[in-house]
Write a structure and sequence with these properties.
With 235 residues, this protein is an alpha+beta fold. It is 37% helix and 21% strand. Strand 2 and strand 3 form a beta hairpin.
């Protein structure tokens, strides 16, 4: 996205590259908050995150964004009375850090916010959908064909129903978290392939599916390249 098109206060989807630019890989946070922000950005490499633009960065073409994070670790500064009650030496300040749990030992999380300065070109409109590369489509279709090999029509129908449930589940997650966009699209590819196989086996009257007799089957797993990374080993 162009810097002139960015609106302060608006929500966007930030696509974080798998390989961060050198200035993000070699910098060291000058404070605990900056170090935490640097680590959080490193942890979301290759993912899409929901952010809100709060301003423009000092460097040309950059924006300041914030995103919400659940915090499970908290710090509690002790009062002088509390420190004395624990038998701690006077004249010092003490802080307890750790996690908060309820009576069922479940960890309680608290809202937290982290701030990043990133290039404006990483931003995308919140409603933008990803597109699956044709090689990735073939790869996932091949996986379904391999899994369906030898299945009966009833088993294939059951698998198609399960794939549809997965589509609905992941689509629901993607409504709140853009990190699930890719998974939702892949789930749709899987479901469509199960439906295609189900239609094929019923039209041919076969007792079990055989991808070797299916002219539209993808039998061999294609090599899939993600960016400039090397293709995965074939197994």
């Amino acid at each position: 996205m162009r810097i002139e098109d960015v609106e302060v206060g608006a929500a966007y989807i930030a696509g974080i590259p798998q390989r961060l630019p050198p200035e993000y890989r070699t910098g060291h946070g000058a404070s605990v908050a900056q170090w935490r922000a640097d680590m959080q950005l490193y942890m979301v490499r290759g993912r899409r995150i929901a952010v809100t633009v709060t301003g423009f960065g000092d460097a040309a073409g950059t924006v300041v964004v914030t995103r919400e994070l659940p915090a499970g670790r908290v710090a509690l500064r002790l009062t002088a009375e509390q420190a004395a009650g624990l038998g701690l030496a006077e004249g010092q300040e003490y802080e307890i850090t750790g996690i908060v749990t309820d009576e069922a030992d479940r960890v309680i999380t608290f809202p937290s916010r982290v701030e990043h300065t990133i290039p404006a070109r990483w931003l995308r409109p919140p409603g933008e959908r990803l597109k699956v590369h044709p090689d990735s489509v073939r790869f996932h279709r091949a996986l379904v064909c391999r899994d369906a090999d030898g299945m009966t029509p009833q088993e294939i129908d059951h698998a198609a129903a399960g794939a549809l449930e997965q589509v609905h589940h992941v689509q629901g997650l993607a409504l709140d978290d853009p990190e699930h966009d890719w998974s939702a699209l892949v789930a749709e590819v899987d479901h469509h392939e199960w439906l295609r196989i189900a239609a094929h086996i019923r039209s041919t009257g076969l007792a079990a599916y055989d991808p070797r007799t299916d002219p539209d089957a993808v039998e061999d797993l294609p090599r899939v390249r993600f960016g400039r990374s090397a293709p995965p080993d074939e197994t």
